[in-house]
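Me: I hope this is not a bother. Any chance you could explain this protein sequence and its structure tokens? It all follows right here:
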Amino acid sequence: MAIAKKIESSMSQASWIRKMFEEGMRMKKEFGEDQVYDFSLGNPILEPPEAFQRALRQVIEQAGIHRYMPNAGYPDCRAIVAEHLRQEIGAAVQGEDITMVCGAGGGLNVSLKALLDPGDEVLVIAPYFPEYRFYADNHGGSLVIAQSTEDFDLDLQEIDKALTARTKVVLINSPNNPTGRVYSASRLRELGELLEQKEGVFGHPITLLSDEPYRKIVYDGVKTAPVFAAHRNSIMITSHSKDLGLAGERIGYGVISPEHQDRLALRQAMTFTNRTLGFVNAPGLFQKAIAQSQDACVPISVYRELRDIFCQGLEEAGLQIERPQGAFYLFPRTPIDDDVAFVQLLLKQRILAVPGSGFGRKGHFRVCYCVTEREIRGSLPGFKQVVQEARSRKI
């Protein structure tokens, strides 16, 4: 076979999310769009806000907008983002601390390439985004998993047990995909204190890498705590896929903490890895447009209302849910132990969900509520029927 054995093996372990999304496309062709309830992929339904649309129209008329720029991105755009962050989180971020990247996935790969040597460990908190395993492996790292608490908060005892002398990165995701959990400032400080203690024991920095593409999508007065206040050796990665509805444009940025002990070296390393990984630059047109749109956001109230409708409907169907504080996912418990079997039963009702096993947490499943209210309400009778069937069959 022409393809590498490693890639062949990786494809066999590929994300459940994409598998279900592709199954959804097949079912829609067979049964019709309005007869399938696809909650598999977090694909935002809200259009970019007018402030961004206006900025894009202005930028596209600029001369030279399609030319090369420095590998880390346009200096003026990085300076604007840095000023916004100084005002928002109070950290002394400079434009040179920022690397414009091709979405959060691109930013995580740029960071891990800069940080990892072969054999280094990347500690993640389950449930976690499945692609993290491949991102770590891309750069010679191996994934180590620590389970969260029952309500999906950071479990410091589990994290402590999972940290080793080979831990180079702790990768967190808040607001979390798939649970919607937002880690509090106090819990992040506890994590930072633990990492600082372990740095002294192991004799090397442990970078807290925070994946925050949902950082603005929070509800009920909850705020995303700044990771820089928790641990000096930290990097924050974000994108505008969700808060500006730009998932298809792959535009975001990475920020090195002003207090990181290797700040200057990391600036150079991330610029270098951005280029050598083949991203080279984040899209120039969208760098300029998002620089003018840092205060803009899609209407979060729409997602909050969809969350409430879905939570109420699934709870009435007999499912147990930790109500999410952010992002746009629900991660209910399955009424039976076998989450894969439960998701297969949902398929018979033309409902597409993702088993919790794919996120490192069995006995749950994930559904996305960045969909229409019609899809959510239309699916609820099917959920109720499947819950009753699963319990009666005792699978």
The chain has 13 helices and twelve strands. The CA atoms of residues 37 and 378 lie 8 Å apart. The mean pLDDT is 95. The chain has two domains: 5-48+298-393, 50-291.
